[in-house]
Design a protein that fits this description.
By secondary structure, the chain is an alpha+beta fold. It has 2 domains: 78-275 and 286-303, no CATH class; 316-681, 3-Layer(aba) Sandwich (Beta-lactamase), CATH 3.40.710. Helices cover 39% and strands 19% of the residues. The chain contains 23 helices and 23 strands. The strands form 7 sheets. Strands 2, 3, 4, 5, 10, 18 and 19 form a 7-stranded mixed beta sheet that branches. The radius of gyration is 37 Å and the shape is elongated.
């Protein structure tokens, strides 16, 4: 029995050893095969060349809307034609074929393409006028000498990009122009090239059908800027456009905008430019993985965040009414007043006195923003310079509307008081010159002098004030420097020796008298004078005028911030309530001066305060100004209206208030106008 067990044990041990040898042999054979076949195959496989590129996803630009949320500038989903480096042929000749094919299709469908090279489109080639900086940049980019000709530049592009002789001269120029644009826009894996924008669906379909023959050409859906109401303050809204040059691109980078690309659309003027950081949003990012020259994958790594929507203080309907009021008044002047045949230009500014929010800002002539973008030259070349916003940038002598400033200086410094009277006998003798008044007002105080606009009272006051004190109050009222409107405004000039020196003119001491009544070289904007009126209404508190009410998210569903009133100056430092009571009384008196019934302010159920002016434009022509506020005792609005080469600006005041009442019926002015209407109806 023991012998049997021993034999069985030896058999099992032998069997296990044999099995172990067999398993080891199989594993060795497997490893050998793996090394000889599989590893050999991997050794023969070429090394992978992997590159990852980051590309920008453009953010949707924020909208600009009026005070009630009605869009002025918005976006639509449109189709842009792009070329992507990842799929575009590396071979120059193949790339030229793609460019030629897509341009031919664009020509057939009536679309332009992006080509900003400063060289004429046809032979003999010449540099475009007024583009010296672009020409210099072109030569630098092509590594040409400064004396290179336009033809040299085109020839260099033809040579560098191997544009074949089989193309016509016109076709060579087109391909060369696009090649340069691609160079200028840093066309690369990270930067797509926008060839044409806002393509219609029919053309999009044709392009997609032919994409197999045009490697790298693609269509992308993106938000495209649209003009919804181009008649609303177009000068202040402004417009957007591509980054035109490396210099502009560098300026954006220097201003802290590190995520801009040369293919971006940016604000060029007005609020589009001033509010670029808020409107543009934050671009997203996507990564493109390229293995051995082929795109392996595309993934979004950062979603784009849309720009903020800006809500304005401007009322679109009120703006339309005041624009029409101004235009109709000028039409009436040209038709009925023989000395007003050139009354083609003017402005109206209406402010909310609580904060100097701009409710409306009409200017004549004007334009539609959409028309400007469609054909800039046709608008720019019209008569009377419609591109100039006369409300913010037109400079004029204010005439007698300036007198409340002189009155403020006199009353606040104590040079005069309510009882102070000066004798007006029509003529005022100063050194060796005689100045005149419109009438003989005899003994007259400051309030009455404002009502009847007595020149001699203010001549006398100015001599007692002196130039320095008068200038101090002008500056406190906001004259002589920009007011800080978001879209920009002109500062004008103060009548002083420094201004005369700037104009190469001689300052005489008598200029002080003319300055005191808004003549000499006092130069103001209608916006500044509307602010003067508002400051008087607020008893010396001057607020910064503003167009922006609030900032919202891109969907205009949640407010981010609201612009608070900004007090920038307290004008009367000594006894503001007394100073402005006397000035207000004088301006109420001016409003009570009878006018034709259609324009008469006495028929209103509220007091209005105004001051008129007829400043000399030339020796034979005058402008017409009026400033004011209403209601006189509890002001809601302040205004300035002006007509170049015209008169009777005060005839527009009633229309301004009626237009305001129509849009704000629950205001005190609205209630008064409705009451008047019911009274007239009965």
């Amino acid at each position: 029995m023991k012998e049997l067990l021993r034999q069985i044990s030896e058999f099992l041990r032998s069997s296990f050893l044999i099995l172990l040898v067999l398993v080891s042999s199989v594993f060795a054979v497997y490893r050998l095969l793996h090394l000889q076949i599989i590893d050999a195959n991997e050794t023969e496989k070429p090394n992978e060349h992997k590159m990852v590129y980051t590309q920008v996803i453009p953010a949707t630009r924020g909208e600009i809307v009026d005070c009630s949320g009605e869009p002025i500038v918005s976006n639509k989903i449109g189709y842009n034609l792009i070329i992507e480096k990842a799929y575009f042929p590396n071979d120059n000749r193949e790339g030229n074929t793609v460019i030629y094919r897509i341009v031919k299709l664009l020509q057939e469908t009536g679309y332009d393409w992006n080509d900003t090279i400063p060289v004429s489109k046809t032979l003999p080639y010449a540099f475009e006028k007024d583009r010296e900086n672009d020409v210099k940049e072109l030569k630098n980019n092509l590594n040409l000498n400064f004396y290179a000709t336009a033809e040299n530049c085109i020839d260099k592009l033809i040579s560098d990009y191997e544009i074949d002789a089989e193309y016509t001269d016109s076709e060579k120029r087109i391909i060369a122009g696009i090649r340069y644009e691609m160079l200028l826009r840093h066309f690369s894996m990270s930067n797509v090239f926008y060839l044409s924008n806002d393509i219609d669906l029919k053309t999009v379909t044709r392009i997609k059908e032919l994409r197999l023959t045009m490697n790298g050409v693609n269509i992308v859906e993106e938000a495209i800027r649209t003009i919804e109401n181009g008649d609303v303050i177009p000068h202040e809204i402004g417009y957007v456009g591509p980054i035109y040059s490396q210099e502009e691109f560098q300026r954006l980078l220097n201003n802290g905008h590190a995520d801009y690309t040369l293919s971006d659309t940016v604000g060029k003027s007005g609020l589009e430019l001033a509010c670029e950081p808020e409107l543009r949003g934050k671009n997203g990012k996507k990564e493109i993985t390229v293995i051995n020259g082929d795109v392996s994958s595309v993934s979004v790594t950062e979603e784009a965040v849309g720009g903020q929507t800006i809500q304005l203080t401007v009322n679109s309907k009120l703006q339309a009414d005041l624009q029409e009021l101004l235009s109709n008044h000028c039409d009436w002047l040209r038709a009925n007043e023989k000395e007003c045949k050139e009354a083609n230009c003017g402005a109206i500014v209406l402010l909310d006195t609580k904060s100097n929010a701009v409710l409306s800002m009409a200017t004549l002539p004007t334009y539609n923003l959409g028309d400007l973008l469609d054909d800039y030259n046709s608008v720019a070349e019209q008569e009377n310079s419609p591109l100039v916003n006369r409300a913010t940038d037109g400079l004029y002598r204010p005439g007698s509307t300036f007198k409340p400033i002189t009155a403020t200086a006199g009353l606040d410094t104590g040079v005069i008081n309510y009882s102070t009277k000066f004798d007006c006998e029509r003529d005022f003798h100063f050194i060796d010159h005689v100045f005149h008044c419109t009438g003989a007002h005899h003994d007259i105080n400051v309030t009455r002098a404002l009502t009847v606009s007595c020149n001699i009272f203010f001549y006398e006051l100015s001599t007692r004030l002196g130039l320095d004190r008068l200038l101090d109050y002008e500056r406190m009222y906001g004259l002589g420097a920009p007011l800080g409107l978001e879209s920009g405004d002109s500062g004008g000039y103060l009548a002083c020796p420094e201004t005369f020196k700037q104009f190469n003119e001689t300052w005489y001491v008598g200029e002080l008298l003319q300055a005191a009544i808004g003549q000499s070289e006092v130069q103001v904007t209608p916006l500044q004078m509307a602010v003067v009126a508002s400051t008087i209404a607020n008893e010396g508190n001057r607020f910064r005028p503003h167009l922006i009410d609030s900032y919202w998210d891109n969907a205009h569903s949640q407010m981010i911030s609201r612009k608070e009133p900004e007090l920038v100056q307290k004008v009367a430092q000594n006894n503001a309530s007394t100073v402005y009571r006397y000035i207000r009384e004088g301006m109420i008196g001016a409003a009570q001066t009878p006018m034709p019934l259609k324009y008469d302010l006495n028929s209103l159920d509220i007091d209005v305060a105004i001051k008129t002016g007829t400043p000399q434009r030339t020796k034979t022509k005058t402008d017409s100004f009026v400033i004011g506020f209403a209601p006189a005792q509890n002001p809601e609005v302040a205004f300035c209206a002006m007509v170049e080469n015209g008169k009777y600006a005060k005839y527009m005041v009633k229309g301004i208030l009626e237009s305001y009442a129509k849009q704000y019926p629950d205001s005190e002015i609205g209630k008064a106008i409705r009451k008047q209407a019911r009274s007239n109806a009965s």
